[in-house]
Amino acid sequence: MAEVSVEINGRKFRMACEDGQETHLSSLAARFNRYIEEYKETFGEIGDNRLVVMAGIAVVDELVEAERKLDTLRAELQTVTKAGNDVAAEAESMEATFAAKLSDVARRIESIATAVDGAGQDAQARSGS
C-alpha cells in the first residue's frame, strides 16, 4: 500500500492509498483544499473544524447535484431508447407490410403475364389454323 503526503488548510497529512492511486489522491486533496481556501477568503479565520465541515458539505452538495443530473440523464436515455425501439419496431412492421404488398403485386403481374401469354397463344393458334 502506498502513502501520500497531502496538505489541507496548511497542515500535512499522511494518507494511505492503493498503489498507483497516489496522483489521484493528491489531486482530490488539492481540490478539497481549494474549497477550504475559498471559504477562508470569504469568511476569514472561523476555525479549522468549521472550514472543514463547510468544505465537506459543499463537496457533498456537488455530489448530490451530480447524482440528480445523472438520474435525469438516465431517465432521458431510457425515454430515447424506448423511442428508438418503437421506431425500429414500426420500421420492421412497415417493411413487412411493404414486402407483403410487393409480393401481392408480383403475383398479380405474373397472373397478368400468364393471361397475356395465354391470350397471345390463343390468338396465334387461331390465326395459324
Automatic annotation (TrEMBL):
Biological process annotations from GO: division septum assembly; FtsZ-dependent cytokinesis; septin ring assembly
Localization per record: Cytoplasm
Gene3D superfamilies documented for this protein: Cell division protein ZapA protomer, N-terminal domain (3.30.160.880)
GO CC terms in record: cell division site; cell septum; cytosol
Domain of life according to the entry: Bacteria
Keywords from the UniProt entry: Cell cycle, Cell division, Cytoplasm, Septation
Pfam families in the cross-refs: ZapA
Assembly mode: Homodimer. Interacts with FtsZ.
PANTHER family: CELL DIVISION PROTEIN ZAPA
Protein name: Cell division protein ZapA
Organism this protein belongs to: Pelagibacterium lacus
Organism lineage: Bacteria, Pseudomonadati, Pseudomonadota, Alphaproteobacteria, Hyphomicrobiales
